Structure formats: structure tokens, C-alpha cells
Amino acid sequence: MTATYRDIKSDILGKITRGEWTPGSLIPGELELAETYGSARATVNRAMRELAEEGIIERKRKSGSRVRLTPLRQARFDIPVIRREIEEQGRAYRYALVRSEVVEAPEWLRARLALQPGSQVRHLVCLHLADGTPWQHEDRWINLALLPQALAADFSASGPTEWLMSQIPFSAVEISISATAADAALAAHLDCAAGEPLLMTERSTRWNDQMVTYVRLVHRPGHRMTTRY
Amino acid sequence: MTATYRDIKSDILGKITRGEWTPGSLIPGELELAETYGSARATVNRAMRELAEEGIIERKRKSGSRVRLTPLRQARFDIPVIRREIEEQGRAYRYALVRSEVVEAPEWLRARLALQPGSQVRHLVCLHLADGTPWQHEDRWINLALLPQALAADFSASGPTEWLMSQIPFSAVEISISATAADAALAAHLDCAAGEPLLMTERSTRWNDQMVTYVRLVHRPGHRMTTRY
């Protein structure tokens, strides 16, 4: 039987795991590997590409591929849709709109979304709950120049994230994760003590080269983002 | 000129961005696309595979590919080697070993690394500094049953992360990110107030199906993990 790209990938991984190919060492060329495995060069190429994407090897056009000195370079975290995240745990999802207003963008937001002075934004504060317990606090700002339909949209029954997904089919984003201390309002909404350390995710979303929305999601106390390889 | 996979990918992205292909809608089959673009099916396949990996489309063997309802499903964060992270910013990296001991694994660690009672571990507390300012606090535990050479290793001049990379060529990990409050020791090491919210990264590393090391990295106050698409 001919070796599939999976066979080749797993054989190479084995060589690296067992230390036959040491970190930093040169890996045989694709033509040579294709001969070794008796397979097409494209098959070897796919195996090598996946090993490179997973951070196991490093490919260089001129000097060939090497086993990476630092095996892990990236961590991928799932970004769940909150309703699904809660319902997949068998809990009841509930949404509450805390505040809704149309305002001139404050200066910090103008800087972040590259907005002109006087730009109108829709500002929403919402709470996502699991079995009645606060799960996530959402502070959302939407650029009305780019998404004027957000002016009339009704966010009393479901959150702006789901609505935005139906409006923006593809978007580029910047995501930041940091730790913040609960202020009085967050403490009241998330049912914790003021000053408690909370994990915060911020997202700025670009659509057709303009910034369309910024959101600050503050997770419940003790929340962990976890990923496995 | 023949369309490259990049041309095809960008043309399809354009159709989705402009709303010609709406979220949830069916995308023409690969054979049909190959005809449209006058290119090989393998070329179309590569474009589609990358769009799927980036979470733009959803591929199903039987029912064909669709534009995803939820464009973004994952966030990838770079995990830098701390020395490089600091030096790439033009700052001077300095390392300090705060504590080094060989102890029986405490119960919480045994649970985490699946260790037998009485297992010996090497425990290290280190500090990574940038231009003399504390940058990251490392609390590291190494399973001596699996890595006995860690008993004699010298960590006075450089940290265990770099050493481990030379010992473990490939490994599976679990990564968790959370917010924690500085206790007295962390506050003293990271030069901040007790109770200050800090971003914490925990990693458990598996090697050949056994847990080899657990580390708790606490970042300096105000640290953000950021990724862009």
C-alpha cells in the first residue's frame, strides 16, 4: 500500500519524538522523502506543511527543513458563541440588556476604532447568564456610520454578537486578553467583590477596511480559557 | 495567466465580504470552481482548505461547502520564548533563580500530573526581567521519574524552559489562561501591590504519554496577550 500523508506525518513525528531527529537537525529533502516512502512529492509536501503549521518543523526554501528548537509556537483557543457555550454544558442560557444608548464616541473609542470626532455609536451593556448566574458581562460599541441598521436593531431579547454575525459575513479582528479588577458596576453585575481579579477579552472588528465594532467581555470570577494539544 | 490558489482564495473572500455569497449559503463544488477559474482542482482544493482552516467556510464531504454562519471560531496566540520576546523589543533580558528544591510532589500537583504518592519533583521559582524590571514570574515543577537528568541540571544562569526544550523534542500540552490576584510573594517579586489583578498562564506538558512538567507563569501587571487577523 502507498503511504498516505498521515502515515508520513506520523512516521516523521515518531522520529522526532524518539529523538532520532534532534531539535535543530536538518530533515531530508522532499524528493528524498518521497523516494523513501514510495509516494508522490505532493503527499510528502502535505505532511511537511502540516508539521510546519503545527510548529514541529521549520521550513526554509533555500536551506531545507529543520526540527524546531522550540516545538510550540502558538496556542489556539476556541472562541465560543456564548449561548452555545452555556447550552453545551446543559445549562439554561439567559440574556439581559442592562443599558442601551446612542452617543458620540468617547475619545478612547475614537482612537481605537479610528473614528472622526462627532461619530455616533450605539453603546450596549448586556449580561449573559447560565442557570441564572452571571457568566459574562458585555460592553459593546457599534460604529453607526458603517452599520446604520444598528440604530433600529432591537437588542432587548438577544445580544449584539449574534446580530453582528448576521450582518458582517467576514471580518478581521484584533483580540486582547488581560486581567482586570472588578469595579463597583462589574462587581454588582457579576456578583463578586469589588477588586476581584477577572479575565477580560477585548475584540476590535474590521470590515471592509473600517473599524465596525469594539467589545469588552469580562468573564465571571474564576473563568479559565483552556486549550489542549 | 493561470489563477493561483491565492487568486482564487481572494476572489472567494471578496464574494463573501461583498455579500454575494451570504452566510450559510452553498458554495459551488470544486470541479465547478476549477472550471470557472480555469485552474487545476488541486489549486481550488488548496484555496478551499485554507478558507476552511481560517474559519471562513465549512466543508462537508457529502453536502458540499458553505459560508460559515459564525466567521471566527478560533484565536491563535503566539507563545514566545521569554528571552526572545524581551530581546526583540530591544530590552536587556535578565534571569534570576529565586528558589530551587527537590521535594515530594504536593497533592494538587500529583492530581495534575497523575503522579504516584511519594513522587519526587524538582521545584524552581524564577524571575525573568526586562531592563531590570520584573516581566514574568515562573513557578516550575519537573517530574524526576520521567526526567531524572533534571536533578543535576544547573538552573542558576538560565531558566528551565530553555533547558526543557532541549530535552523534550515534541510534547503535548494543556494551556490555561486566567486572572489571579497578587499574593504577598508575587507582589514582592513583580513589584506591584498585593491584590493587583495579574494574567496567569498555566501549562502542563505531556511527553510519551506521561506528564513531565507543570508551570505557572504570572505576567507583569498590565500585560496583554494580543493577536491580529
TrEMBL record, chains A, B:
Signal peptide: none annotated. Keywords: DNA-binding, Transcription, Transcription regulation. InterPro entries: Bact_HTH_transcr_reg, Chorismate_lyase_/UTRA_dom_sf, Tscrpt_reg_HTH_GntR, UTRA, WH-like_DNA-bd_sf, WH_DNA-bd_sf. The keyword Phosphoprotein does not apply. Residues 2-70 form the HTH gntR-type domain. Coiled coil: none annotated. It holds the Pfam family GntR. This is GntR family transcriptional regulator. It comes from Tabrizicola soli.
